[in-house]
Amino acid sequence: MNARCDFHSPTWLRRVGRFVSWIVPGAVLALMPKCPACLAAYLALGTGLSLSLPVAENLRLGALTLSGAVLGGLALQVMARRLAPRAAKSACAPTGSRAAENPSSWPTHSSVRRSRS
Question: For the whole model, what pTM was predicted?
């Protein structure tokens, strides 16, 4: 089984990872305060670090941009997966017999000549 086929059978860890990859950027967008002063106050209360308003504004803008980019990338992945041709699933199908993969079972030239006569 190749890595491409393994991707189509998600394990519980992969499912949790997909769920978290959507939740974290969404939570950042939903819980981010609108004003930089509030962000600076929350950081000061939570960590004891004080930030100036320009730094807090840049931090807020960076977090919003990063979260939006991550959500946009995840949305593009979902759209690409749904719009992808279904032929990719057939690549995981078994090839039929193992004889085609085993060169030792291939007929030799002498056996082919004998079978014709």
Answer: 0.58
